[in-house]
Amino acid sequence: MSVFSETPGGALLGCLLIISRFHDSPVSAETAIAGLPLVNGTLTPSVFHRAAKRAGLASRISQSPLEQLNENLLPAILILKDDKACVLNRIDHEQQTAEVIYPELSETVVALPLSEIQSKYTGQVIYARPEFRFDSRAPEIKKVRDRHWFWGVIAENRRLYRDVLLAAVMINCFAVAMPLFVMNVYDRVVPNHATDTLWVLAAGVFIVLSADLILRLMRSWFVDLGASRADVKLSSAIMERVLGMKMINRPASAGSFAANIQSFESVRSFIGSLTVVALVDLPFVLLFATVIAIIGWPLVLPIIAGALLVLIYALSAQAKMHSLSETSMRAGAMRNSTLIESLSNLETLKSFGAESRIQTIWEKTTIFLTRTAAQMRLISASITNGAQWTQHTVAVAIIIIGVYMIIEGNLTQGGLIAAYLLSSRAMAPISQAAGLLAQYHHSATAMQSLNEIMERPVERPENKNWISRPALRGEIEFKRVNFRYPDDERLAITDMSFKIRAGEHVAILGRNGSGKTTLEKLILGLYEPESGAILMDGVDLRQIDPSELRRQIGYVPQDVSMFFGTLKDNIITACPRAEDQQILRAATLSGLAPFINSHPAGFDMQVGERGQLLSGGQRQSVAIARALVNDPPILLMDEPTGSLDHTSEETFKQNLSRYSRGKTLLVVTHRSSLLTLADRIIVVDAGKIVADGPKAEVMEALKQGRVGSAN
């Protein structure tokens, strides 16, 4: 069996934990891999550096035989065959032995012959060293600028772009060869019938053209390689930021937010090969202009005039293009938001006959967006076509001036042809730059929206030191907690204080909008209190890694969300490495087992998008199974039987009563039948606790009307 299936998170994660402890920078498994793109729940070498960074380690993967490993950088991680890995602690070349640590054996050091390790070693080694970090005692001599999420990634490929620049220098130098060849043929070969000279010149030009072809292919490959590398890293960074942002900073509209993220496509295309080539070629306009001036200085005047004309017109259109780009971005986001909302609520729209209203909004937005886009295209086309017209006009002007110079004896016919050819090469980058200016503002607006996304606070900021709590007891305490949702003047929770002992079963009652669900979201760490503190086992919740906290809480939300895929995929959403025994137990406890057993596909049945192929009760049972599959010590359940029939509810109550013994249980409910699960009742009204005590006492007070409102 693979080590990756035996060790939680894989052997590579186990090695990282060992290395981090060795360097006095311990990190929990959940902290190291939370939110990373794992393969079958295991850490892979390609994302190891991201996990290592969370432990304060800088890492690098290297190809090296055992004999050439740098002993000064030990311990290091050896990548072995069959998805295995180990930590190389020491190597003795004289005795042909090595000391290694396998993650399966905790931190036990094992001495093995080098030959045995060599037979399993893949040749890949990962070196990891602690990064130096300044503390508050070290004053900043100069304000250190944080690495920009976009330009920092682009800068990582600076060596590639250096090669692109060198290739561009050679290509533009070679571009002078063809005009000079033509000039010499007209001025020297033809008048003197020097065929030998012709063949020598032709051979030289052929060599230059061949080298030019090779360099162009290499330049294109380098540019595309750099763009591909940047694309992968930038896309990953954007998605990681989106998934990691705090819920309080969540955008109001998912559709509009999705449109802003999709705008990365325009940024990516703008920094593609055309942009890089145009920007690199632009300085060489001076080279071609200089050569033309050497041939005949009056011939360079049309190029100067043409370049100024193109750039002045392109720059004058920028203000209008910027305004239209922002308008187009906002209108596109609004239309995308309408589309997402319509698709998500299509059944509701049809049920109430509201298609006409949505269609009206869609068409109005589309018409406005089309008009805006048409104006942008018109301005962009005028810049592009104007640049082409100027380029042709410059060529005509050079020919006219050249003819007069030939008549006066100041220029040869070959010189005129060479100047004509060079003028096209000189004006081409200017025309491309003008075209890029027309596209720039669309990409700049997209970049601005992406910057806003990337600057939003995240739950797990870098350099944050979390307290590792791998086994919570389940004691929960609120100390004078106040909380309000964004853009809401009213407090959702007001000066709330209570304490729930580990293993206690509590029911939370209250009217709609009283703050019951908000309590559970605060306990999950989805939101932070405006003031006061929430303690878990006596530790402030803000000190515990959110991923480690939520792994130990089984949460059943009031509104069940499901994902496209199989029934099993949705049950193991939070525990992708769950074994079949865990899945079967969760399905049995939730009451889902009879339905699964009777279905031909069983756990492999498709649930459809948002679980639309399941009934409401079945979706709720899946949510319960998803909460229980990891056997958490804390259970938060918001109306867990709201969509279940009476029989299913009774079965679930009996199962939960047995299962929850020794676990902390919080149940938000309006159903009196679920109160049998609780030993204590907390009544909430308008964000305040109006009653709290043993179940019998609170129930009696409710019956007698002795429990009032918060007001």
From TrEMBL:
Q: Mention one GO molecular function.
A: peptidase activity
- Entries under NCBIfam families matching the protein: type_I_sec_LssB
List, in alphabetical order, the GO biological process terms annotated in this UniProt record.
Answer: proteolysis
Where's it found, cell-wise?
Answer: Cell membrane
Cite the Peptidase C39 domain residue spans from the record: 5-128
What protein name applies here? ABC transporter, transmembrane region:ABC transporter:Peptidase C39, bacteriocin processing
- Which keywords does UniProt give here? ATP-binding, Cell membrane, Hydrolase, Membrane, Nucleotide-binding, Transmembrane, Transmembrane helix, Transport
Which Pfam families did the record assign?
ABC_membrane, ABC_tran
Keyword flag Transmembrane: yes
**UniProt-listed InterPro entries:** AAA+_ATPase, ABC1_TM_dom, ABC1_TM_sf, ABC_transporter-like_ATP-bd, ATPase_T1SS, P-loop_NTPase, Peptidase_C39, Type_1_exporter
Q: Transmembrane residues, as ranges?
A: 164-186, 198-215, 270-289, 295-315
Which intervals hold domain ABC transporter?
476-711
- Check the record and name the Gene3D superfamilies matching this protein: ABC transporter type 1, transmembrane domain (1.20.1560.10), Cysteine proteinases (3.90.70.10), P-loop containing nucleotide triphosphate hydrolases (3.40.50.300)
Q: Which PROSITE patterns match?
A: ABC_TM1F, ABC_TRANSPORTER_2, PEPTIDASE_C39
ABC transmembrane type-1 domain boundaries? 164-442
How does it sit in the bilayer? Multi-pass membrane protein
Q: In its keyword annotation, does this UniProt entry include Isomerase?
A: no
